[in-house]
Structure formats: C-alpha cells, structure tokens
Amino acid sequence: MIATGNHAVAYGVKAARAEVIAAYPITPQTQIIEKLSEFIEKGEMRAKFLRVESEHSAMAACIGASACGARAFTATSSQGLLYMSEMVFWAGLGSFPVVMAVVTRALAPPWSIWNEHTDMLTQRDAGWIAIMCESVQEAYDSSIQAFRIAEDRRVKQPVMFGLDAFSLSHTSERLELIGQEEADAFLPAPEGGWKVIDFQDPTTYGNMAGPERMMEIRHSIMERVKDSARVIEEAASEFSRISGRGQAGLVEEYRTSGAEVILVVVGASSGDAKDAADALRDEGIRVGVARLRVLRPFPAEKIRAAVQGCRAVAVVDRDYSFGSGGIIGQEVASAIGAKPFNYIAGIGGRDLSVADFSGIAKDAISRAEAGEEGREIWWGIKG
Amino acid sequence: MVVLPVSRGREGAGGLTGMWRIKRPVVDSSKCTKCHLCWLFCPEGVVRRGSKGEVWIVYEFCKGCGICAEVCAAHAIKMVREV
Amino acid sequence: MVGHQGITETFTLKSLTDEEYLLPGNAACPGCAAVMAMRIGLKALGPRTVLIVPACCMSVAQGHYPKTPSKVPVFNTAFAASAATASGIRAALEMKGITDVNVVCWAGDGGTADIGIQSLSGAAERGDDLIYICYDNEAYMNTGTQRSSSTPEGARTTTTITGKAERKKDVPGIMMAHRIPYVATACASYPLDFANKLRRAVSIKGTRYIHLLSPCPPGWRYPSEKTVEVGRLAVETGAWILYEWTGGRCRLTGPSSGLADRSRRRPLEEYLRIQGRFSEADPSKIEAMKKRIDEEWEMILELCKG
C-alpha cells in the first residue's frame, strides 16, 4: 500500500494491539490519532480511546493505564510535547513503558508548524528510549518494535519514536504491513508496565523517597536504559527476520567505508544525505553517512566506530541548544573525543536538500584540508 | 537490578508517631458508655473496640491530638501530660 | 458494585467495619481531618478500591518509601493530573475485564480547584467512571498554607496576610454544571454522612464528585483536639452546607436539613472566632463571606425545590 508516515504509525500501533490510547490533537500529528480513532470506532481495533483535554492529561492517562498492565500509546509534537513534559518525565522516571510517536516540529514563538528536532531532544533526559525514523516503512516497523522494547523485562522504560514534520509525517511512500499473526508472535501479550495497581497485592506507588533511597531507584533506570541497546538490536534483528526486510539498529552506516567525510544525520533527511553521498562518490569525493536511528541510549561506541578514520565529521543538527550548540553535535563530540564540524541547518523547517548535503560535505572537506578545528556553522543563513 | 518506588502497607509509615505526643489519652472504663465516638473520630485508627464494646488505645502510634477526649460524650477520656 | 461487605444498607457507627485500611502511624499532622475522613471513607469503599493521589497533604501523609499506611492500592501522580490518571486507570481496568473496583481520586483543594481543574473538568465532560473526592482544607496546606481559590474570604494564609479578598470558588457548583450524575458535599465531622454518600456514589456509574470540608489545625490555627468541633460549627452556622445532588435534584443532609431557616443557624462568629486564621479579618471581608454563604444557600434551596 501507499501511506503517509502518520498513517503508517497508526497501522503499526494497531498491529501492536495497543489497549489504551489517550491523545490530544496537534499539527502535524493529527492523522495518527484520527486513523486510530477510525480503527477503534469501526471495530477493527479493540482499545479504549480517551479524548483527553490536554497533552499533560494524555500522558497521565497513559501512565495510569500502564500501571494496570495495559499497553498504552500517545502521540504529540512541539508545544504539546513540552506541555506534556512533566508527565513525560513521570513515565521515564517511573518506569512506565508507554510508547509515544513524536512528530518533530519547531517550537514557538513565533508559531511554526514546520520540521525541527529540538522538541523531541528537550526530553532526552527523561529516561525514555528515543528512536528517529527515516521512512514511512521504518515508522511502521519501529512503532511495533517500540512496544516490544518498552515492555521487555530487561527494560520496562517508555519508548518514543520521531517522525519529521511533513517530510515524513505527511509524505506518502510505499508501505508493507506484516500480518497480525506475525505481529502477535513478535510481541508478547499486552503487559504494559509492572503491574503496580494490583488488588491481589496492594501497594502504594511513588510515595516520598528520601535521599538514602533515591539513587538506587535512578541507578536501576540507568542500567535498564543502557541495556536497552541490546534489546533494540535484538528487536530489529527479529523483526527483520519476520518481515523479510532489513532493519536498522542503533546507527545505520551508508558507504562509510573509506570515507573522507562522514555526514552524521538524524531522521527523514538522511535519505537526501545518502543521495548526496552517492552523487559525490561519483565525483570521486568519498562521502559516507552515519544515520543515528537511536538517540537514547546514545550509541557512542557505534558512532565512534562509524566515523573512525575519516578526515572530517560533519554533524547536521536540525535543532539547537542556545548558549551551547547543536545537541547532536555535542553528543557526537563527546563520543568521539573531538569537535566535529557542526552544521546547524533546517531550523524551523528550512529546506535541507540533496544539494545542501553535497554543499555541507564539500564544505567540511575543504575546512579539514585547511586545517580548521571543528566548529559550529549555521548553514544557509541569510544576510 | 530493578528498584521501583513501590511501598507496602505498614503501621508506622510516618515513623513512631507515638513519640510525637505531649499528652496521652487515658480511658476511664467505669465512665465509658461504649458509644464508640472515639473510635469513629480518631484520625489515626488507634482507638480500638472489642467484641464486648470496650475501647482501648494503641499508644505506639497515638499522636495525642486529643480528639477522642473532646468527642467522648461521657467525658471518660482525659488527656494526661507525658512530657 | 455496592458497599464493602456487599450490603446496601445504611452505614451506622456499629455497622462500619473494624478493618483498618489506613494503618496507624501515618505522617499526617495530629488532628488531621483528611486522614480522619480517609480512614472512614475506605471502610465505606472497601478493599477493591484504588486511590489516585496527586501532590497534596495526603501524598506526604503516606510517609516514606518503602512504607505506606494504606492497605488498598494507591497511585501517586502529578499535581494537575489525578483525574486524567484515574481515567487511564479505569480504561485499562475495563480492557482487562476488571469492573468491580472503585477508582477514586483523593485530592486537595489545590489539585482540584486550581492546578487540577482542567483534568477534572475533562474527566467529568467525558463522564469517566470514577469517584473524585476533594478534601478541602481551604489552602495549599502541604506547602505551608498558601491561599487557593478555595480559601474563604478574610482567611489569613501566607500569601494573604491581610486576609483573602477573593470569593471562595464554588467547585461543587462547577461540577453540577458538568451535569454529572452525582455531586455531594461532606464534612469530616460527619463521618457517617460521608460514608453513606460514598455508599450511594458507588452504586452510580459515571463521574461522581464529593467535596469534603477538612479542618486543618496548623493551617486554620486551632488546637488539634478541636477538629471535629470546628467542622460541626461550619455546618451548624450554615457556613458549610451538606447536600447531595443527583439527577438534577438536590437534598440537604445531616444538620443542614434543619438549617434552611437562617434563624436556626448558630451565629457565624462562633465558627470564625475558634480559628486563628480569621482573628484579624477585615469586617468587610467577613461581610463578603456572609453574602457568599447566603447566595449559596439560595442556590441550593432553589435546587432542592427542583
């Protein structure tokens, strides 16, 4: 079939048999929840849809559901994600394996509905596993894998996966579904979180924890988020087997072997980066692409391995941390022990084309040849 | 290792709250009419009632708030200074 | 879904179970009306009850992990989120085929009338199947007595040193405007009235709301042993009206049923002077309070005719 990224997510969540969906509409996420509403009202999907009155309530409801052992899902973007943020942290710090789709969109003011990754990255400290999708197919595949990763007993942490606003959420591409039987075999029966609301074994969840208790609770989360890297790879490998198509793990390397310059990219524009790499390779410039599929846990070792030996590392950030720099750029710098050429591009949805990636790659190479140190470059800024 | 903030029902979740009080309630069973208002109104549930209707107090956790003495219709409970 | 022992009969002092669902030694202040009410409330609701508690005094009254005083499941959630969390819990329980349990929010006035009002309104509009109990100690007591919209006129709090100027928000009235099937007021000093309101609420499906007056010794500034007396004076002076509204019809309960005639109410001053929070109240604010009380009586009596 042909489907948009948003619809692909809805199909995935349906295949995953999510049980409780609580969501509030926000452009450009609306089609995810509209399609899910349709599935439920037509009887194609057995789930409760809570038409909550805000994103904060959406996540609160998902957490409550997860605490009863139900499989919970929500979706949001930008302002909605930030409004939800207190509860995003509640889910992560509380170990509730909720799954959430984030259609990444620039934050206001001024109002913008266009693509940018800052929103999703503001939640990077919340204890969630974070995945960024490149294509419609990957959005579907990742949505199903997300539930398995989240509910795995070695993890039991929430998982968010991102779709670039419009360039993925609203872009139609070919989509292959797996059968419901395959999905059921891939996923365990809906288990949600630790069943902390249990009438056979009544407990109180989340009352005050003093300084003598808190570190161990957080340490437990740290271990499980760290260990999720292996669970992510296992899920990808298993999904690859049942779907008959390759799945990316933590980092996808494209023509990185022998590359002089490697573009480190995130999300839908990775496809354009790969096209640029192909074109430049034809010109004799050895360009490779390292796509970060997983942002949390940050795959430091994989990134280090991917960029090893190249002359120039060009990280493209469609996000920014004022007073510091590109967020991905900083995390890559920390992983590789050197400051890359950090291109700040595509902010507020500014177009990032194949030509831009070619330009960036060539720019990075020439700076490296001139002996320049890694630095931040705002790409395509006018005036 | 999984460490979750899950707690189980215990007496003394707030500590040995009996140590909080300055006065303790003393029941004069000769005056007690077994109306059980003290049992009803004790915020802590430390006033217990038995099969014959008699009442007694679990002092380990009694905070000495004095409500039982106030509501006792027969004035059978006195608050006595401890500290 | 009926009361604890599967009985539909009225709860009496003798018939309330001796089983304690809120164990002694919790961290509440001595003389706290909220734990007083919760202890009785849980006897009425029974063990197949999950409590959802947002940030409020009750969060802290649970003491420290790994201990809790509660024998029923309790889920602590964020300040604004109790009703939404409860909605999610109910949806999940229904998906799992568990239908014979009470899903009950237990929230303070802050988490109900102020920061929590959005999620409460949302749940009520959706008609989510839960009981929402607001224990109203008339200020943000957990953080040290700052005013809330539920603080009455003239009351001293740390953010209204010269007494609150604004009108006490009528949250039960707001809930009636949502046209939910059950809205009631209660008072910790009338535990059987509260228990029987819970008994009736439990037999109704949909969003049910109970607003319980919860006198607070440190916040209202009176000695701890006077909690029951303070609550009684609130009702006997008419300052707090005990009623039950269901199917669009209201009825007065407890002593309030005899106080429609204003001359039968004790003077309001008897209620105010026992509390230090009103000791320096501006007379104009007390007049404003009296006016508001009169208006509430008028509205409730009108609804009683309906």
Automatic annotation (TrEMBL), chain B:
GO terms for molecular function: 4 iron, 4 sulfur cluster binding; metal ion binding; oxidoreductase activity, acting on the aldehyde or oxo group of donors, iron-sulfur protein as acceptor. InterPro entries: 4Fe4S_Fe-S-bd, 4Fe4S_Fe_S_CS, PorD_KorD. NCBIfam families: PorD_KorD. Keywords: 4Fe-4S, Electron transport, Iron, Iron-sulfur, Metal-binding, Pyruvate, Repeat, Transport. Coiled coil: none annotated. Pfam families: Fer4_21. This is Pyruvate:ferredoxin oxidoreductase, delta subunit. Residues 23-52, 53-82 form the 4Fe-4S ferredoxin-type domain. It comes from Methanosuratincola subterraneus. PROSITE patterns: 4FE4S_FER_1 (PS00198), 4FE4S_FER_2 (PS51379). Its cofactor is [4Fe-4S] cluster.
